[in-house]
């Protein structure tokens, strides 16, 4: 798989309505994760590590934090004179992107037309995973497929729209259902596929001419019998963020060394924006157990089973358990938190108590004072 063969297209905003708490002031792609990353870091790093050197990121609204995070793309080696990273905002688009993914793809028709790559790899930014697309592309080429979708086998997420595939032993997709709710022992899509660039443009043009805007229903399902659609099963660790509870559990999963080994292998690193900060500092009498603590943190209290982002300060006497505390939060003296997700720049005063549960963690919005 050569970089000049494939162009990556990322949808930064898809499914953000499922985690409205976290996307009120940001897009799905810029949701913080794992102490120092954003969700877009996984989608971008997977492409770059697989040899793709041209990526377009489709946005809709609230993408200021995404622009700040991506910058010129230098972190991912995408700051280039040719190819590189392209942010594709809605301004100047003659077609609305609110109708569905088809209209979003139609709005970047000129970008696709002017690209020289033969294939397009389409991906949402709502899944935390570490996928080597070279294996997927090799499978796609061997099968001479029109479209190759990436799926997982197991219990599908409990959402209003799941794409479930019937796949034969050779990987050929025999049937495709769009279902509501969760199913067990099924092959469910994770919003990633490979298709020829010209084929994609033709399918999008045809769908737009018929006022059809749903990519899964109006392009994939409608044309399933007329195209060679294959499915590639991804068996590694993957966490699709379909609810606030899923987001919390995806962070807590990082406590397992096996999960971290699959998400962050040395040969396939996840890149992110660098923030030069001091190492984490642990005061006398502090206690940290089974937690992820980012650089810049100052810990004087007790922390257990937590994910602490950069610059978090835990003052003396504070006790944190099963929490996700985002960047530059301050936990006051004597404060006790359990099953709490605090967004950026939250300040807890002295002797505050707040507790949720594993099935319903408490969320504190960005910039709040408790």
From TrEMBL:
* BP GO annotations: glycogen biosynthetic process
Show where the Glucose-1-phosphate adenylyltransferase/Bifunctional protein GlmU-like C-terminal hexapeptide domain sits: 286-349
Is-annotated flag, keyword Disulfide bond? no
Q: What class of enzyme is it?
A: transferase
Pfam families in UniProt: Hexapep_GlmU (PF24894), NTP_transferase (PF00483)
Which keywords are on file for this protein?
Glycogen biosynthesis, Nucleotidyltransferase, Transferase
User: NCBIfam families, from UniProt?
Assistant: glgD
What is this protein's record name? Glucose-1-phosphate adenylyltransferase subunit GlgD
Q: Which organism is it from?
A: Acutalibacter muris
- GN (gene name): glgD
